Amino acid sequence: MSVVYIIHTISGQLDIWKMIEFNNVSKTYDSVKALIDITFKIEKGEMAFIMGPSGAGKSTLLKLLYLSDKADIGSVSIAGFNIATLKETSYAYLRRNIGFVFQDFKLLKNKSVYDNIALTLRIRGVMERDIKEKVYSALKMVNLRHKIDSHPLTLSGGEQQRVTIARALVGEPTVMLADEPTGNLDVGNETSIMNIFKDINAKGTTILVATHNVNLVKGTGKRALYLDNGRLVKQESI
Asked: pLDDT tens-digit profile of 3-43?
């Protein structure tokens, strides 16, 4: 049975209770140990945070989840699919259920907000009338419908990050990953972005956010997993 068939026969999306699972995962780059014996689980519908200073291993952990790299030791699973045993030809199907929010936005500067968000759906062959509906819905979620024809360089940093979230959201992902999504923003925009993530999570999307900003997470009641020099040193509700 192919991966794409499995994905589309489980209510149209991946639907396993343990949405993210690391078992004794280690990763080394040129003798530098980025991750060391990491084990944890993120439940379906959970919103959690990967905490730690720069160089702790947060970005490496997200790369393994987004299938842009592989673990040297141990297993990484998303919705029951073990990435180590998944054929690379099936990566695209799994990525369709994963939204990724980058710290530095990675928006196409010569394209409008609409076209930046629509690009992923066009690549998938979605019909233009359906793309329009989905883009409008995603922009409504991040309160940017009025910027639909604008270009990235005319937007503030907070607005650009909201476009990035809308782009990750438009494909209706089961899992959303965010790497320091408020790292370049002021306090007011940090709060706005976090509220958007909470709203998305409330609709059922599993969210994992990597951040070094303790103040951003404090008081959320969500689970925080702390990395230090590549090791998972503790977990707690914060």
From this structure: 443 333 333 444 456 789 999 999 999 999 999 999 999 99
Whole-angstrom distance, CA of residue 165 vs CA of residue 158:
11
Residue 201 is classified by DSSP as: H
Structure tokens at 32: 């530098």
The answer to whether residues 217 and 49 touch, using CB atoms and an 8 Å cutoff, is yes
Q: How confident is the model at residue 47 (pLDDT cuts 50, 70, 90)?
A: very high
| Helical spans, DSSP H, in the chain | 3-9, 58-65, 91-95, 113-123, 128-141, 157-169, 187-202, 214-217
Dist. CA 117–CA 132, nearest whole Å: 10
Task: Label the pairing between strands 18-29 and 32-43.
Answer: antiparallel
